[in-house]
């Protein structure tokens, strides 16, 4: 009989080769015996989420968080699911959990900024995008998002500077040029 590690490795190998049906079978087999195997819960949730089954993915991520509440990936993925399904306040809370555990996570800051933008909390969006731009200076879109949020706050001079900085750093970025045009 295969060990839990062997079954999990088989699932990962199948998942990486694109055989999601075999990967799913491995993770479900493992979870049948060890229902709190957090790594299998995370991988299975990713598979079912990629198929659009957000309800089951949410259930699996929440189950993984019951076993280990500091699973940053689970909080992040829950935020994505909540955002995709229009549950913006829950999405914000999930991204905030990521930032509690990992305050320097630019992707969580960007996603939180997008969510609070959707909630029309533009000052908070500015804060998120500004922090993300500092943490990930190589990300072209972040400066443009920051500029957009600054415009919404009526801070036009700062917005123009963000757009100019974006065109300086990323001269091929059409969005920055468009925003300045």
Topology:
Layout: H1 4-16, H2 20-33, H3 38-50, H4 54-67, H5 72-84, H6 88-101, H7 106-118, H8 122-135, H9 140-152, H10 156-169, H11 174-180
Helix pairs in contact: 1-2, 2-3, 3-4, 4-5, 5-6, 6-7, 7-8, 8-9, 9-10, 10-11
Descriptive account of the structure:
78% of the residues lie in helices and 0% in strands. The chain is built from eleven helices and no strands. Helix 3 runs antiparallel to helix 4, helix 7 packs antiparallel against helix 8 and helix 8 packs antiparallel against helix 9. The termini are far apart.
Please tally the β strands and state the result: 0
Strand content: under 5%
Q: What structural category characterises the helix and strand content?
A: mainly alpha
Radius of gyration: 20 Å
Low-confidence stretches: none
Proportion in helices: over 70%
Basic shape: elongated
| Count of runs of 4 or more consecutive helical residues | 11
Largest sheet: none
Secondary-structure element order, N to C = HHHHHHHHHHH
Q: Tell me the span between the first and last alpha carbons.
A: 66 Å
Mean pLDDT: 94
């Amino acid at each position: 009989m295969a060990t839990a590690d062997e079954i999990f490795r088989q699932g990962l190998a199948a998942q990486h080769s694109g055989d999601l049906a075999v990967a799913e079978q491995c993770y479900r087999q493992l979870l049948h015996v060890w229902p709190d195997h957090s790594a299998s819960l995370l991988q299975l949730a990713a598979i079912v989420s990629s198929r659009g089954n957000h309800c089951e993915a949410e259930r699996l991520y929440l189950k993984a968080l019951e076993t280990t509440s500091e699973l940053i990936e689970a909080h992040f993925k829950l935020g994505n699911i909540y955002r995709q399904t229009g549950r913006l306040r829950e999405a914000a809370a999930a991204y905030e959990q990521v930032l509690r555990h990992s305050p320097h996570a630019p992707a969580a800051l960007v996603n939180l900024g997008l969510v609070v933008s959707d909630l029309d909390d533009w000052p908070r969006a500015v804060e998120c995008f500004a922090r993300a731009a500092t943490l990930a200076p190589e990300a072209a879109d972040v400066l443009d998002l920051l500029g957009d949020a600054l415009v919404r706050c009526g801070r036009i001079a700062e917005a123009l500077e963000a757009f100019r900085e974006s065109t300086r750093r990323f001269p091929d970025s059409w969005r920055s040029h468009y925003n300045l045009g």
